[in-house]
Amino acid sequence: KQEVTQIPAALSVPEGENLVLNCSFTDSAIYNLQWFRQDPGKGLTSLLLIQSSQREQTSGRLNASLDKSSGRSTLYIAASQPGDSATYLCAVNNDMRFGAGTRLTVKP
Amino acid sequence: DTGVSQDPRHKITKRGQNVTFRCDPISEHNRLYWYRQTLGQGPEFLTYFQNEAQLEKSRLLSDRFSAERPKGSFSTLEIQRTEQGDSAMYLCASSPVGQSSYNSPLHFGNGTRLTVT
Fold first, then answer.
1. In a 3-state reduction of DSSP, which class is residue A36?
2. Are B2 and B106 a contacting pair, CB within 8 Å?
3. In B, residues 76-95, which contact A (CB 8 Å cutoff)?
4. Are B24 and B32 in contact, with CB atoms under 8 Å apart?
5. Chain A nearest-CA residue for B94
């Protein structure tokens, strides 16, 4: 059974800092991995999807990497802003096993 | 593209009552997913449809839960004889047809928050 873990559970940083969020999974036989953002009381917004054949994807200040062999993905956020404050979730495959998320707070 | 729409946004019901939620996916998205999310946790997969066919159901989906997608467009999730443990956010997502549907991003609605008193 696929298990998805996200570390840290919560993170607080000052505005402008670069940061890395981690996602690990136990079964490397995946089709894709997707990073989402969730604001309080809202649904999830897709940030990046990495296919199993890819090693990274970039969108603006976000960069996600995938290392299937080690069962890890990272989400790098450059020059963080208060508007980045949210919970960030990773999910594996389209039956979507989710991690519990990392709650990010960026302080102005 | 109007996004995935869920109705109602909030539902408060008494234990033992039946509730039904509706999800309207993005048009032309042939896959539709239901998830449940409790506070501080990631969403838990419940079931998904490809067109009108229900292809997978989680063991979380007890016999009190039923989902339908009769015409391959909108979907309903019904919970019978609700229990306090059913209190959660119920999320719907859809994904487009692609060469490989496994590599199509999911688009989520804002969810229906259920409170069972």
1. strand
2. no
3. 91, 93, 95
4. no
5. A94
Whether residue B103 and residue A49 make contact (CB cut-off 8 A), yes or no, is yes
Whether the pLDDT of residue A30 is over 90: the answer is no
Q: Which residue of B has its CA nearest to A43?
A: B110
Q: How many CB atoms lie within 10 A of CB B17?
A: 13
**Whole-angstrom Cα distance, residue B112 to residue A1?**
28
pLDDT 10s digits, A35-79: 999 998 888 999 999 988 999 999 999 999 999 999 999 999 999
What is the C-alpha separation between A21 and A8, in angstroms, rounded?
Answer: 7
End-to-end CA distance of chain A: 41
Does the pLDDT at position A85 exceed 90?
yes
Q: For residue B97, what are its two tokens?
A: 């047809």
| Residue of A31, A45, A100 lying closest to B102 (CB–CB) | A31
- CB contact under 8 Å between B42 and A41, yes or no, is no
Number of residues assigned to chain A: 108
Spatial CA neighbour of B103 closest among A31, A26, A61, A83: A31
A97 interfaces chain B, CB cutoff of 8 Å = yes
